[in-house]
Predict the structure.
Amino acid sequence: MDTLFHGDGQSIKSANEFPQLDFDQQHSLSQGNLVNECQFDHLFNNVTGLSKLSSHLDVNSTPCEVGDDSPVEGDYFDGVFKYLQRMLMEEDDLLDKPCMLQDCLALQAAEKSFYEVLNENQPSSPSRGRPRAGQKRDSIRELVDLRDLLTRCAHAVAIYDNWTANELLKQIRQHSSPYGDPTERLAYCFANALEARLAGMGTTLYSALTTTRASAADILRAYGAYLEICPFQRMSNIFANKSIAKQTSTVTRIHIIDFGILYGFQWPCLIHGISLRPGGPPKLRITGVDLPQPGFRPAERIEETGGRLANYARRFNVPFEFNAVAKRWDTITAEDLAIDEDEMVVVNCLPRDSVMNLIKKINPEMFVHGVLNGTYGAPFFVTRFKEALYHFSSLFDMFEATLPREDQNRSMFEKEVIGREVMNVIACEGTERIERPDSYKQWQVRNQRAGFKQLPLNSEIMREIRAKVKSYYNKDFLIDADGAWMLQGWKGRVIYALSCWKPAGL
């Protein structure tokens, strides 16, 4: 099902449903207008971050000078926060909706949550509040290696030694907590997934975690806090947007095809940037592709994203169209994307194998490839478990260094986003296991075999991103390069990688 939105205000119903602030009102919100800040703080339950970050990262008005080379366009750093603020302030129905950041498999699950059923016979976990420091607890912790217990439990699960697995789980439960230190929180999360695998309820619980436990508004607030303390998503967006802007700097029509668009958080910054081009902005068309939701309106959530982006484009006088495509990615054809010959086409996605052939048929001027750099996609359970334990321990450690343990948004993100991913990786198998990351080096070979040529990194963009991460984020975040890949990570571990490609024939 496809739906076309126009940014002229005439043929877009859902965009007009959102009340508008003019640009001056918007600007005052990020600059500290007292009335708007009070309303905002009340809505966000006094969460720090979204307004605070926009105030010290506001580079909207001028280009950013980088080194001695030509200036790089401003990245309009706070655009995503304004966009997210408006969603949470104006869309009351987000309290009743599931979150698009979570996988669409959950939308096809039964309404009933089996999470409580699984845990109703388990002893209550210790440390329901922030753990108290104490000599007794510290001495106990020294005697317990939770990672070793988790790995031994995974071995027992793999050979169907349920008695041993359950005994180990009892020990893990005694010393783990969703409110403890990073290792305790990690163990609590992985214990849930191991228990679900033992009970044969992995898919049920994976789905229930998204359908019944938190509203879209709750998770989006947590996502906003994540954006503040972690540069991964925002630096990825800057890398992609600046690469797209440079590639399309002289054209009058741009068509971006975004596989997995979700809420469209990447595009407000790009819209603001192209609005300031000398001679006026180009016409921007975005085709948002995502999985359909069940029911009579499979494209409804993608259409809502189109409405929000059309509203944003209208405020900056950018001619805009949005095409919503709600299909499984392996069923999409080039015809669904309605490509015109006189527009420059750019593809943006974290692709799967099923999409690579389609991208080749699209023949885009540029393909921006983002990779979750992980090796926990292995078919063998114990190998996958160990790699997942290593990967996710970095994320829990990152939160420990950047947010207080009692922070509600941290707990929400760890439970509803990381916990869901771990549940899928550990407790699901076959076609139900969606989380199957590969390393960027594996994608390097795969892309080349598929007929794509890698484009070199832009040194200006890399210098600017390095400077931003150094200035605004924890010192343990890393920005590096390997060949033509930009790498992002934590304490030496590469977590995300990005690069730009084009069909080898172009």
About this structure: The first strand starts at residue 2 and ends at 6. The longest helix spans residues 381-402.
